[in-house]
Amino acid sequence: MKKFFITVIAAVSMTSCGFGPYLTYNVGLSNVEAPADAKKQYGETKIVKLDVDGKTNYKYEDDYIDISWFVGNSQFAFELKNKSNYSIKLPWDDVAYISTSGQVGRVMHSGVKYIDRNNSQPASVIPKGATLSDIIMPTDNVYYISGQYGGWKEGDLFNFPIDKKNVEQSKLPYIGKTVKVLFPIIIEDIKNEYVFEFKINDITVK
User: Fold this and answer.
1) Is-contact 167 205, C-beta < 8 A?
2) How far apart are CA 138 and CA 112, in angstroms?
3) What phi and psi values does residue 40 have, to the nearest 5 degrees?
4) Which member of 80, 156, 178, 204 has the greatest number of CB atoms within 10 A?
5) How far is the C-alpha of 156 from the C-alpha of 18, rounded, in Å?
6) pTM of the prediction?
7) DSSP output for 3-24
C-alpha cells in the first residue's frame, strides 16, 4: 500500500479518569494514510478543523468518504458520510487500535455489550449519501471489577505514569507520542485501508 500523508496541527483535549487533580491530554489528528494512489483514485484529500458546540473536531475528506473525528477520554467518536455512488461497508472485525507502544488491539463500537466485546461484530453498511455516527473503543480498555462499587469500567486511551505534582517534567517522555486507528472501508468488494494517526501535543493538570 502506497503511503499518502496529510499533516494538520491538532488541539483536541481529553481528561483522564480517576480522582483529581485530572490530567488533560491535548490530542489531535496528525496524519492520514490513505489507500494506494489516493490522489488519483479518490480525488483531492484534505483535513479541516471544526469547532462544534465548543468541541474541536477534525474532518478528513476525499471523493469517497467524509469523516469527522472527536477524541474523548476513553474512545474515538466519528461521523462517516458515504460520498460514493455505492453502498460501503465498515468491517468491524478488521478495525484496529494501535497504541503508543505499537501494540495492535481489537475495538468495539456503539451497541456492542461489554461482555460481548471480543465476539465477532457484523459490518456496518452505509448506503450512498448516508451517514454513520458511531464510536471506537479499544476492548483492552474495558474491564470488570467485582464488589459493591464494581461493575464494567472504561479505561483511558492513555494511562501514562505521570507525577501530577511534577507534570511539566514527568510528561516530557510522552509528548509527541501517537496512537493510530486502522479503518478499512469496503467499496465494491475492495477493501480500502485508511490509517488515522492521533498525536499527543501536551499534557496539563486540571
Assistant:
1) yes
2) 12
3) -80, -50
4) 80
5) 10
6) 0.82
7) ----B----EEEEPPSSSSPEE
Question: What type of residue sits at position 127?
Answer: P
How many Å apart are CA 181 and CA 80, to the nearest integer? 14
Per-domain boundaries in the chain:
12-205
The amino acid at residue 22 is Y
User: C-alpha grid cell for residue 41?
Assistant: 483514485
Length of the chain: 206
DSSP string of 71-99? Answer: E-SS-EEEEEEE-SSS-EEE-GGG-EEE-
Helix (H, G, I), strand (E, B) or coil at 120: coil
12-58 residue pLDDT tens: 445 555 555 677 888 888 888 887 654 455 556 666 665 655 555 67
Burial of 91 (C-beta count, 10 Å sphere; 0-12/13-18/19+): middle
Q: Is the Cβ–Cβ distance between 199 and 178 less than 8 Å? A: yes
C-alpha–C-alpha distance, residues 14 and 23, integer Å? 8
Set of cell numbers at residue 194: 485508511
Q: Is the pLDDT of residue 104 over 80?
A: yes
Are residues 80 and 131 in contact, defined by beta-carbon separation less than 8 angstroms?
yes
Q: Is the omega angle on the peptide bond into residue 21 within 30 degrees of 0, that is, cis?
A: yes
Task: Provide the CA 15 distance to its chain's centre, in angstroms.
Answer: 15
**Chain centroid offset of residue 108 CA:** 12
